[in-house]
Design a protein that fits this description.
Elements lengths: L1 E4 L5 H15 L9 H10 L1 E7 L2 E10 L5 E8 L8 H15 L4 E5 L4 H9 L4 E5 L9 E6 L1 H4 L2
Parallel strand pairs: 4-5
Antiparallel strand pairs: 1-2, 2-3, 3-4, 5-7, 6-7
Helix pairs in contact: 1-2
């Protein structure tokens, strides 16, 4: 299996997997992002993919914010490839790159997703704040922050 920076030519495959992962994980009321934004993210943000036998089976994404932090915005793995450590490795390669920039990062996570919360805490996201209705009514989230200085090796 290969973990690497995503190629601009792969944005439609990433967007397709994003839609499927989103529909499996949440209400499926809307698709959060379309191909157009993935095209921009692959070229201008930190976007990494897991590829097996030529197929993209997972992705991670972070982008810079106005305050200098990076927002870890996406992490998803194809359903048939979960529980193999792929998400952990996608986060690891993303965070190594963010650490090279010497900046803090943050993410949001659904409060009723203990496996994701445990993974993020294991990876150094130690500051946790509950935000009611963060993404709209009944869309609560934890905002977890990873402080660069605490994770510097």
């Amino acid at each position: 299996m290969e973990f690497r920076k995503a190629k601009t030519t792969e944005f439609t495959a990433i967007a397709k997997l994003d839609r499927v992962a989103w529909l499996e994980s949440f209400k499926g009321d809307f698709i959060p992002d379309g191909e157009h934004v993935w095209r921009i993210w692959v070229e201008y943000a930190l976007t990494f993919v897991a590829v097996e036998k030529g197929e993209i089976i997972g992705a991670s994404l972070a982008f810079p914010c106005n305050d200098g932090q990076y927002s870890v915005h996406k992490l998803f793995v194809a359903k048939h490839q979960r529980t193999k450590g792929i998400g952990t490795e996608l986060m690891r390669v993303l965070l190594v790159t963010i650490d090279e920039l010497k900046v803090d990062s943050f993410l949001t996570v659904y409060p009723k997703n203990p496996p994701a919360i445990a993974l993020y805490e294991k990876l150094g996201f130690t500051e946790k704040k509950f935000e009611k209705d963060f993404y709209g009514e009944e869309e609560d989230r934890f905002v977890l922050t990873r402080i660069f200085e605490k994770n510097r090796k």
